[in-house]
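I'd like us to work through together how a protein chain folds, taking it slowly. To get us started, please write out a protein record for me. Label the sequence line and the structure token line clearly, so we can match residues to local backbone shapes. Once you have written the record down, we can walk along the chain together.
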Amino acid sequence: MTRALVIAPQWIGDAVMSEPLVAALGARGERVAAAALPWVAPVYRAMPQVDSVIELPFAHGRLDAVKRWQFAGALRGRFDVAYVLPNSIKSALLPWLAGIRRRIGYVGEGRRLLLNQRLRNPTGRPPMVAFYGALAGAPLPADAAPHLHFSAAELDTATRAAGVSPGAYWAFAPGAEYGPAKRWPPERYAELAQSLHRSSDLPVLLLGSAGEAPLCERIAAGAPEACRVFAGRLSLLDAMKLIAAARGVVSNDSGLMHVAAAFGVPQVAVFGSTSPRHTPPLSQRARVVWLKDELQLDCMPCFDRTCRFGHTRCLTEVSAVRVEGALATALDARPYNVSLPA
């Protein structure tokens, strides 16, 4: 059996997009281990094809050459092939130092000496599933999409700890690490939370990182009877479980958006500065609200962290009523089939 090491990307959404590659490797008999930074590792714990998860002890953005050399020593002789998903030199250095015979990845940042099976860097912004899937050496099916899984017992434990029951709450992920140009206004989230709570009598759980807790507190202040703030109070693994068991999810274009899609949860994703043609939620039960055609703003998508014009109309003009209507159609959709937006 081929022993494969997948060097994981550093962002949650990108990690989710790598699941079809991992599934393809497992389907052809490779025994897969994922080497991931701690904040991404939980994504791979929800992939049944991953035999083990190796948490990397490196600081974000630093070479940590000595630490990489020491860590590589523990990997020597354990793997036959490495699939290097990020395009950085740092990510390709570890399998080279570990002496893994086959090292596969994109040319990236001048990595010709570190990789011995290299793919050309694609132009533009290719779909991430296909981008990672190409490393398997054969094209993935055109409808390939990520699928994550937790057992019913795991979901029951997580929801019970949060004081809710599976399917009896809504989950919002109002943050986006990239910047404010990807964040639907908190006032809109609060308005939507109030409306959903009035119509369903179900609570709204606000999920996110510790840095997003103030944003979630602001939303909760606008809808105190509806919202419960969990941002910064849960591990990513537990937040993923609450997403998987939710009745419906509303988010921005973020890593947790991709998590919800991979669990097949009814969801609405609000896009502004980015494009759903590049990073859509790959699920038949997902609905995207993006006003490019309606607003006719030449700047959409700009992919900026902050709005260069200061108005963020691409997001502020998305109404809570519009998102709630989209969520209603997502709830009626048949589960677990994949649809790629045009």
The radius of gyration is 20 Å.
